[in-house]
Amino acid sequence: MSKDDIKILLDEIRHDRELLGKKEVSLKARESDLIDKLERVSGMTRIEARKILLDEFQRSLTSEVAKKIRQAEEKIKLEAKEKAKEILADAMKHGATTYVAEYTVSTVTVESEETKGRIIGREGRNIRSFEKETGVEIELDEGNVIRLSSFDSIRREIARRALEMLLKDTRIQPSRIEEVVRLVKSQMEDILLEEGKKIAQECGVFNLPTEVVKLIGRFKFRTSYGQNLALHTIEETKIGVSVASEIGADTEIVRLGCILHDIGKVVTDVEGNHVDAGVATVKRFGFPKEVIAAVAEHHEDKPFSSTESVIVWIADAVSGSRPGARYEPFEDYVKRMTKIEEISGSFPGVDQAIAFQAGRDVRVIVKPEEVDEDKLTVLANDIVSRLEKEAEYAGQVKVTVIRETRAQATTTAK
């Protein structure tokens, strides 16, 4: 290509560039003109229009995100329910125990009426001496059965062992009775210590104070609605620890909370219900505040203060309410619940009274036109007072009085 040809080509390129520049200027002017027209028609500036578009996009994006979150939450809830079932099932499986509990025996069988006569003694001196030494009443039934009666399960156990020893010895007289009862009492302290060690070992708890171990040993001779307290405690502790380990809670707090939750049931020197007695006991021996809270909250008498407290409550409920755990006759259960409802519903202004949770929770619905707001608290306290005097119940009864306020209006007929 010659120089002239190159020059012509360069001139053409310059010409085309100039034309493109002019068209670009024209298009920008046209664009600016159209934007001005759009702004006049829409009544807003370009910046305002951009903001509206961005806001609309943001709303659309937020809606989509919220939808995804809801879907994820539903999926998590479904999976969580299944996981919770697996955890509890696995916990109950691990709660199975080989510990053999001996239920408290309140009767002793004798060979003959002659043997029963030797227990009574001349003019009843033997039976009086036995009752004095043991603090247990002897009831002689027809047949070859002697019943031992006492609210103190340990006294009753000492009496049972002493009576069986005397029957084998055949030398039944006041001095011998004193000697045997004294011997059994001294042995009982060692028995309680050994039984407490066995229960603590089954629960995986060590280095407890000796006095606490002895109290735990009393569990073997204590039942609640037919469920042996030692067996219940071991089962509950294994369930609680298994649940705690699965969800990442403090297993040691749960372990101590479970083994000590019912210790108030075997404490005889503290007034109040078993929860208050248990709290006082664990405080006296300096257990951590989290353990004290678990003991105080295991019947929901106080709001839960930690996940560990909730787990102790769950484990207690699972062990106590599983089929076959407790042997309270159905008739007695119905009678007890009916009595609580009758007492609660007998006050003026009460419309309905319903007992829940084996009688530990009572909901009382009042007639709003007869009972005003000021009388609710008084009524609740009056119901509690009568329940304490006349009803049979386990633990504590929480009475909730409900007064419903209604507003009503009617449209005119058309």
Automatic annotation (TrEMBL):
PANTHER family on file: RIBONUCLEASE Y (PTHR12826)
HAMAP family in UniProt: RNase_Y
Keyword Zinc: no
CDD domains: HDc, KH-I_RNaseY
Gene3D superfamilies: Hypothetical protein af1432, K Homology domain, type 1
Organism domain of life: Bacteria
EC number: 3.1.-.-
An annotated GO BP: mRNA catabolic process
SUPFAM superfamilies: Eukaryotic type KH-domain (KH-domain type I) (SSF54791), HD-domain/PDEase-like (SSF109604)
Similarity remark: Belongs to the RNase Y family.
GO molecular function: hydrolase activity; RNA binding; RNA endonuclease activity
Protein purpose: Endoribonuclease that initiates mRNA decay.
Keywords per UniProt: Endonuclease, Hydrolase, Nuclease, RNA-binding
Gene Ontology terms: cellular component: plasma membrane
Entry-linked NCBIfam families: HDIG (TIGR00277), RNase_Y (TIGR03319)
Name this polypeptide is given: Ribonuclease Y
Organism: Candidatus Woesebacteria bacterium RIFCSPLOWO2_01_FULL_39_21
PROSITE patterns: HD, KH_TYPE_1
Domain HD residue range list: 229-321
